[in-house]
Every structure is written in C-alpha cells, then in structure tokens.
Amino acid sequence: MNIFNTTTDYLKNRKLKKLLAKRKVQLEFHNFQSAKFVYLLFNAQDSKSYIEAEKFMNKLKKEGIKVKLVGIVDSKEDPTGFDPQDKLAFVSLKDCNKIGIPQKALLDKIFNKNADILINLYLKDTFLSKYLTAYANSAMKISGITKDPSADFIINLNEDAETKDMLIWLENFMKSTKKT
After folding, report:
1. 38 pLDDT exceeds 60?
2. CATH code for the domain of 48
3. CA angle centred on 5, ends 122 and 43, rounded to 5°
4. Torsion angle defined by CA atoms of residues 51, 56, 59 and 61, in that order, rounded to the nearest 10 degrees
5. Residue 150: which domain range?
6. Digit-coded pLDDT (tens) for 58-88
7. In the sheet that 153-154 helps form, which strands lie side by side, from edge to edge?
8. DSSP secondary structure letters along the chain
9. How far does CA 52 lie from the centroid of its chain?
C-alpha cells in the first residue's frame, strides 16, 4: 500500500470517529411495532438488493411505517435502471471529496429527519456505507457489516449472504422482540 492510500485511510477513519463522537441521537431500541420512520440503505449497483429493499419498504409501509430508500453507489458512475418517479436518494463516490467523504449538503438533504431505525442492507464493507450509517440521525442502527463502528446492532451473516437473507433474519428477530 502506498503512502497516499495509507494517509487517505487514516483521514477517512479519523473523520468517521469524529462523526461518531458527535452523535447526538438518543439510543433507543425499536421493533417494527414501535417504529414510525425507517431509513433503508441498499446497494444501488445490485438489482436484487433494490428489489428486496423495495419489497421490504412496501411491507413496512403497509404496517404504517414511513420509509426512505437510499441507494449506495460505490463507484463514480450514476445509478442506472431506476425510475425517476420513485424519488429515491442516491450517494455515490462522485458525490465525495478526494478522500471519499460525501458532501455535507447532500447528506443533510437526504437524512433530513430523525429515524427510529436505520437498516443498512449494503453488505459490502466500504467506507461510504459505514459513513452513511454514521451520518444519519437514527435511534437504532442495524447493519450486516461486522466491522461497522456506527451500528448499534450487527447481524453476523455469511460472506455469501444476500440482502434477502439479512431481511429474513431481521424480520424474524424484530417480530420476536418486544419494546420495553
């Protein structure tokens, strides 16, 4: 690894730690019976991930929960295959500065509400995914990335797991728990 990559990684991790240290949201456990608003992050480069996220969003909406889908594009390409009428939010590496930190104005526009639950369905361990999880205001953050420092609850999945696997596990767990 060259000195530039080492320095960039150091700066990104330092920024992530500062962001986590400033977290002002009151940590609180929510299940799907108590949640009113959910952020759902998904892999916008994987059509299966989007299909599963959309199905799950519709299921939550039927239960009276408001949901905002946020697509993560871990490249400088624009997401393709999405209907502009769906009003999805996307964050890509194109929206980041030279060291990979997303623009604050864009994130403030996307994550403009306090959520009860944030579910990160992006199952690859990337800085962008972890940064978005850390940035969003949410009382409870759930991730399938085992090394996500911003997640309050981590679902430990196999390396070959897909979005559908995480959602099945999560749904069963959340339905079996009661909020105290």
Report:
1. yes
2. 3.40.50
3. 10
4. -100
5. 3-176
6. 999 999 999 999 999 988 887 877 776 567 8
7. 89-92, 66-73, 37-43, 115-120, 138-143, 153-154
8. --HHHHHHHHHHHHHHHHHHHT--SPP----TTT-SEEEEEEETT-HHHHHHHHHHHHHHHHTT-EEEEEEEE-SSSPP-S--GGG--EEEEGGGB-TTSPBPHHHHHHHT-S-EEEEEE---S--HHHHHHHHHS-EEEEEES-TT-TT-SEE----TT--HHHHHHHHHHHHHH----
9. 14
pTM: 0.83
- Overall number of domains in the chain: 1
The residue among 55, 19, 14, 61 whose CA lies nearest residue 37 is 61
Residue 23 is predicted with a pLDDT of: 63
Q: Which of 96, 54, 104 is nearest to 73 (CA)?
A: 96
Residue the block writes with tokens 């797991």: 161
Contact 140, 122 (CB under 8 A): no
Q: Which two tokens stand for residue 155?
A: 């679902």
CA-angle at 161, arms to 156 and 167, nearest 5°: 75
